[in-house]
Amino acid sequence: MIDEAIQNGGTARNYTTAKEIVRDQDGNVTGLVVEDSETSQTQTLNTRAIINATGAWAEQIHLSPQKGLHLRPLRGSHLIFPLDKIPIKEAVSFEHPEDKRPVFAIPWEGAVLFGTTDVDFDKELHQEPVITRHEADYLLAAVHARFPDLHVKKSDCIASIAGIRPVLSAHKKDPSKESREHVVWVDKGLVTITGGKLTTFRLLAWDALKAVRPFLPSFSTDGKGQPVFTPPDTSIQKPQSMPEKAFQKLWGRYGNKVKDIIAGVTKDSLDWIPNTHTCWAELPYVAKNEHIRHLSDLLLRRVRIGLILPEGGKQYLEQIQNLCTPVLDWDDERWEMEKTQYISQWQKAHGVPF
């Protein structure tokens, strides 16, 4: 989605913080001051409209205009297991035996994602959410209840991941009973959209575009009913050495840019990384084209193999360095620093607290 936005004239900025909304004497939006979170360099972007779609951070930019209704950050945590430990072919959803909340197991990128919890996130929002021992025990109890014959052990879990939901609340309900509805707030060119959930992303997008249109008279919101993504270019041919399933996954992930990945690759680089649905050829392509500043960007937030492989893929870090050195301007010292920082971050944020 970000890649297609860039192709259509947009600009994507990584490690960028919104510092200040600039307004004229009548309070109308005229710009936004942004800051690079690593270099501290600032820049003012001139604009008549800003869409604030920052999730749980939305009220740091635009306080709720509705009395008594504010964002309640809720943490949802997940455990990740090898597919051979929970060998399912389709998603499975069922009630947790303790509290009857819905939980699920989903085949994901060659592993199984099991979740989720729904608890208040009581830390500062700049702190990365991390699964707790209580949450991990809660999820494992559900695994044992639904798959008793698999004898899944704590040691079978290879990673964890947690996120923050932006839920609008009067703080009067159990977290799992809070509404997942979304809201749109408008303030003289500042349009805030928050709440909602992933499955309603296009509805949220249309509501945000409708709200911003009065501030951008030349902007058209036509396009309802059209495909979300650019239709596939049927002239792109699958390499003979690549299985059809692998090619379809690449196309689904990169769209028509898949031709740039398969151009000139070797047979071995089209192989999947063991126990994942990521091929080796993706790593240098992503490292070159998707604004990688740190190794964690590449392995946790782009190709995701750091969440699928034991110890974050530690055993493959040398091979990853060899593949990506030609496209990343990192010397040996930088690589050693990146690998050390990556492993430390993985252990803190994605290890398993058993």
UniProtKB/TrEMBL annotation:
Alpha-glycerophosphate oxidase C-terminal domain residues: 240-334
Pfam families: DAO (PF01266), DAO_C (PF16901)
A GO biological process held by the record: glycerol metabolic process
Co-factor requirement: FAD
Gene3D superfamilies to which the protein is assigned, alphabetical: Alpha-glycerophosphate oxidase, cap domain (1.10.8.870), D-Amino Acid Oxidase, subunit A, domain 2 (3.30.9.10)
Residue ranges of every copy of the FAD dependent oxidoreductase domain listed in the record: 2-197
Coiled coil: none
Entry superkingdom: Bacteria
Gene Ontology molecular function, alphabetical: glycerol-3-phosphate dehydrogenase (quinone) activity
UniProt KW keywords: FAD, Flavoprotein, Glycerol metabolism, Oxidoreductase
Family of the protein in this entry: Belongs to the FAD-dependent glycerol-3-phosphate dehydrogenase family.
Protein name: Glycerol-3-phosphate dehydrogenase
Organism, scientific name: Candidatus Magnetoglobus multicellularis str. Araruama
Classification of source organism: Bacteria, Pseudomonadati, Thermodesulfobacteriota, Desulfobacteria, Desulfobacterales
